[in-house]
Amino acid sequence: MAMTLAEIRAKLQSQDTRNSNNSSKTPGDNAIYAHWNAPENTVARVRFLPDGNTTNSFFWAERNMIKLPFAGIKGQSDSKPVTVQVPCIEMYGTGESCPILAEVRTWFKDPNMEDMGRKYWKKRSYLFQGFVHDNPLSDDKPPENPIRRFIISPQIFNLIKTALMDPEMENLPTDYQAGLDFNIKKTAGKGGYADYNTSTWARKESSLSADEATAIEKYGLFNLSDFLPKKPNDVELKVMKEMFEASVDGQPYDEEKWGAYYKPNGFQSNKTTTSTSTTTTATLPSATIDEPVDDEMPVAEATVTAPVAGVKAPSQRAEDILAMIRNRQK
Fold first, then answer.
1. Helices 99-107/234-248 angle, 10° precision
2. What is the mean pLDDT of the chain?
3. For an engineered disulfide with 82, which of 124, 127, 128, 264 has Cβ 3.0 to 4.6 Å away?
4. What is the pLDDT of residues 113-133, one digit of tens each?
5. From the CB of residue 79, how many other CB atoms can be counted at a distance below 10 Å?
6. Nearest partner of 129 among 224, 264, 18, judged by Cα
7. Alpha helices in 71-230 (DSSP H)
8. How far apart are CA 198 and CA 256, in angstroms?
9. Taken in order 211, 53, 45, 265, is the CA torsion positive or negative?
10. 67 φ, ψ to 5°?
11. Radius of gyration from C-alpha coordinates of the chain
């Protein structure tokens, strides 16, 4: 059974105190609403719905991915730099430690390595579902099932979360009869990135339409966890760690070693043979999403100072990092 607004507030408060890719079941269903493609100075008005998974305390699911950049594709002299996304095992709530973040966390103890740390730190986004009430996307092709999925960046999520903690919000915004729409407002930000800081909840409560109620009854709600990447097993964790070290070392992506597990987005193999191993690449789009900023990223310890000799070059830093990783393994 879905939680009440008071229970959600209590759990969010508890998290704040504590903290101070399976494929889609219906591939190609076009359910993801790409609000990030909306023109600037427009508003997408949406209505969030509960998670179909009644054991989920919230009406969203958190998604944590790590981006591994590579200089190119091994064996392709004209290949451009590529990026592979791998799931951070810490998102599954099992208490397991991510082998990549275990290394990256130590980098933040040295101010000279903060940039490298941010480069490999997990990128967070949130999965929601609901209806699109006002759609500024002229080329959007709504699916037969009008219940859409939304990939929400931390910038927008923090606005949603802050409003949920406001005592003036009396009802859960996903309530079918007395819920609230959410206005995703896109404006121009700094550095070419979009700004969503003026996004807001509607001021007036409203009920779902008869057609929307019928759609929920006909299609049912999505279990949001079904659209998270598959939890990596022990073999896949080792592959991720190997890819991470190769990425830090500036090596190209090696399809022979890793192609059966994780691939760059949109990668097309030139090989005619196929592997029997299970491919576990993430299925949600990433390159077109606003770059998430993780608000739990470690910070450098204040007691550490930069070396007098100055900042090392990136290539030298990478060699030092790899040496540190390999020494730990020994």
1. 40
2. 81
3. 264
4. 999 999 999 999 999 999 999
5. 15
6. 224
7. 99-107, 114-120, 154-164, 210-219
8. 47
9. negative
10. -95, 130
11. 22
Report CA 107 to chain centroid distance, whole Å: 22
Separation CA 178–CA 82 (nearest Å): 46
Residues belonging to the chain: 330
Q: CATH for 5-329?
A: 3.90.198.10
Q: How many CA atoms lie within 13 A of 32 on its CB side?
A: 20
First to last CA, the chain: 49
Per-residue pLDDT tens over the stretch 127-171? 999 999 999 999 999 999 999 999 999 999 999 999 999 888 888
- Please name which of 80, 71, 104, 60 lies closest in space to residue 228, comparing C-alpha atoms: 60
| Rounded Cα–Cα distance for residues 69 and 248 (Å) | 8
By C-alpha distance, which of 63, 65, 192, 62 is closest to 120? 65
Whether residue 180 contacts residue 24, with contact meaning beta carbons closer than 8 Å, is answered with: no
Q: Could you tell me which residue, 120 or 320, shows the higher pLDDT?
A: 120
- How far is 61 from 137, CA to CA, in rounded Å? 25
Q: Over 70: is that where the pLDDT of 73 sits?
A: yes
The neighbour count for residue 203, using CB atoms within 10 Å, is 7
Q: Is the pLDDT of residue 1 over 50?
A: yes
Name which of 234, 224, 281 is nearest 255 in CA terms.
281
Residue 18: pLDDT above 70? Answer: no
Residues 178-197: tens digit of each pLDDT: 999 999 999 998 878 899 99
Closest residue by Cα to residue 170 from 5, 48, 47: 5
Handedness of CA 236, 242, 245, 248 (dihedral sign): negative
Say how far apart CA 152 and CA 130 lie, in whole Å: 12
In angstroms, the CA 166 to CA 199 distance is 16
Whether the full predicted model's pTM is greater than 0.70, yes or no, is yes
User: Taking the alpha carbons of 280, 283, 284, 288 in that order, is the dihedral positive or negative?
Assistant: positive
Q: Is 28 left (phi over 0), alpha (psi -120 to 50) or beta?
A: left
* Burial of residue 87, with CB atoms counted within 10 A of its CB: 0-12 exposed, 13-18 middle, 19 or more buried: buried
